[in-house]
Design brief:
This protein has 247 residues and is of the alpha+beta class. It folds into 2 domains: 2-99, Alpha-Beta Plaits (2-Layer Sandwich); 107-228, Alpha-Beta Plaits. 26% of the residues lie in helices and 32% in strands. The chain contains 6 helices and 11 strands. It has helices at residues 19-32, 76-86, 104-107, 122-134, 191-202, 232-240, and strands spanning 2-10, 49-52, 60-70, 93-98, 110-118, 139-144, 147-152, 157-164, 175-183, 211-220, 227-228. The strands form 2 sheets. Strands 1, 2, 3, 4, 5, 8, 9, 10 and 11 form a 9-stranded mixed β-sheet that branches. A two-stranded antiparallel sheet has the order 6-7. Strand 2 (49-52) and strand 3 (60-70) form a beta hairpin. Helix 1 (19-32) packs across helix 2 and helix 4 (122-134) crosses helix 5 (191-202).
Length: 247
């Protein structure tokens, strides 16, 4: 049995794909690509696929991860190409490694998010960020399956900064870009919770909904705020391992 770890994206209109929709699309892609999947036991066997920390519906992502178990060995890169061809554009498989280590989910400690705030001046966003970071606690409310819940949106934030990209606004309109590094905690703090916190601490209210994209997730360096590639340990282990015998 072989385990393959994949990184995939949710781009463009496919950011509105729910996690359940993606699961269905991915299982169809497995069949279309004729991947030799390992199956669970029992009355209703299903392919062994493990999903890790999926992004909320409506957000884009460049860094979603999952792991599949195969009944036969395959070359990870060739498998990636087959699956990528079998998925709709926007759901793109961009990386694949053979699993040589345990604990992929444990390495997903934090995420880097980009929040595009059309109609917001960078200076205004910067002042809001300063107020948010200066607060010891920023309580926000979110509706969950168990009703409304209040929690601290500040404690999970490792980094938050505002910038301005001239090339992103050819019409000359204001557009602030927030870069957010948030720890994966329980309850989870999402980008919209941080936006709620910015509204609570500095009355920052973008005129249109923010465009949110996850840029990375992985291990967090608390000193620098860097989030490292969670597949790197598998690549390193593969380099150090002896070559697999043919057949």
């Amino acid at each position: 049995m072989q385990r393959i770890r994949l990184r995939y994206t949710k781009r463009g209109r496919l950011r509105f794909t729910s996690h359940r929709d993606f699961q269905r699309a991915f299982e169809r892609a497995l069949r279309r690509a004729e991947v030799p999947m390992a199956y669970s036991a029992g009355f209703t066997p299903h392919p062994k696929v493990s999903y890790a920390n999926a992004a909320p519906t409506g957000t884009g992502s460049e860094a979603e991860y999952l792991e599949i178990q195969l009944a036969e060995h395959r070359d990870p890169e060739k498998l990636r190409e087959l699956l990528d061809e079998s998925l709709p554009a926007g759901l793109d498989v961009i990386d694949a490694v053979e699993a040589h280590t345990s604990g992929l989910a444990d390495r997903l400690q934090a995420s880097v998010w980009e929040l595009r705030l059309d109609g917001v001046e960078t200076e205004v966003a910067g002042h809001a960020v300063e107020a948010f970071l200066a607060a010891e606690e920023v309580l926000v409310e979110r509706r969950t399956k168990n009703g409304m819940r209040t929690f601290d949106s500040r404690a999970a934030v490792a980094q938050l900064e505002a910038s301005d990209r001239e090339g992103d606004r050819p019409d000359g309109k204001a557009c602030a870009i927030l870069r957010l590094v948030v720890r994966h905690v329980t309850p989870a703090v999402r980008p919209d919770d941080v936006l709620s916190g910015l509204r609570a601490t500095a009355d920052l209210a973008p005129p249109v909904p923010a465009a949110v994209t996850r840029l990375a997730q992985g291990l967090l360096d608390e000193e620098t705020g860097a989030v490292t590639d969670p597949l790197a340990p598998d690549r390193d282990a593969a380099t150090a391992a002896p070559p697999r015998p043919p057949g």
